[in-house]
Amino acid sequence: MPLTILVVDDDLGTRLSISDYLELSGYSVITANDGQEALTMVEAYHPDLIVTDIVMPRMNGYELVRRVRQQPPFRLLPVILLTARTRTQERILGYQSGCDLYLPKPFELEELAAAIRNLLERSQIIQSEYRFSQKDNLGSPLPSKIVESHHSVFTHVEKSHLLSSLTPREQEVLEMLTHGLSNIEIGHQLHLSPRTVEKYVSSLLRKTATSNRAELVRFAITHGLVE
Asked: Would you indicate the residue range of the signal peptide (predicted)?
C-alpha cells in the first residue's frame, strides 16, 4: 500500500506539479488549498508526510504545523515547509513551529522527492522501533526476553543518566515542546523570555545530540523522557 502525502498550497499550479510528480513516484497524494482544510484532512486521512506552503489564506503553514503537533497521534508526523521566504528569522520560525525541513522556493522536484524519501525512511524506522518496544512491553516469550535483557538494562541506565543530566527547567521545557508549544507560549507559562527559552532548547538539543526540535521531540518520546 503506497504511503500517503498531503500537499498543501493555495497555488493550483504548484499543488498540481508536486502532486503529479509524487504520484508518478509511487505515492498516494491528497491535496488541500489552505491550512484549515489541511488540518481537517490530516485528522481524516492520517497522511504519512505533509508538504505545505507557508503563506496561505485562513491558516498559514506555521499555524498548521503547530496545530498538528499539538495532537499526540501526529507529534512525529514529518513536515516539509515550502516558501519563497528565505530570511533566517523566517526559517527559525519554521523550525520552531515543528517542521522537519525548510525548503526555499524555487526548488527542484527531484530535491523535494529526495527529502521526502529521507524523512519517510526515518519515520518508518522510528515507528518500527516504537511498535517493537510496545510489543516488548506487552510481553514476549522468555527466550527473547533473556536475549534482550542486557540491551534493556543498558537502555534503562542510558535513560536514567540522560534524565539526571537535565535540569528541572529543561525537563519542563522539553515536556512543553512535545505538546507543540512555541517559545513565546512556553515563556508565558514559565515566566521566561523567548530568548531564555531558546537557550534551554539549545541545551536540550546538545544533550540529546539532535539537530532540530522535531528530532528532539521524537527522541524524547521514543526514549521515554516525557510522560
From this structure: none
Residue appearing with cell numbers 490530516: 42
CA-CA distance, 128 to 123, in Å (whole number)?
9
Distance, in Å, from the CA atom of 69 to the CA atom of 18, rounded to the nearest integer, reads 24
- Residue among 13, 2, 3 nearest 120 (CA): 3
* Nearest CA-CA partner of 119 in 225, 218, 227, 34: 218
* pTM, to two decimals: 0.59
DSSP helix/strand/coil, 11: coil
Q: What is the DSSP string of 203-227?
A: HHHHHHT-SSHHHHHHHHHHTT---
Q: Where are the alpha helices (DSSP H) in the chain?
A: 12-24, 35-45, 61-69, 88-97, 109-138, 142-165, 168-177, 183-190, 194-208, 213-222
Q: Among residues 15, 19, 78, 70, which one has the least CA distance to residue 49?
A: 78
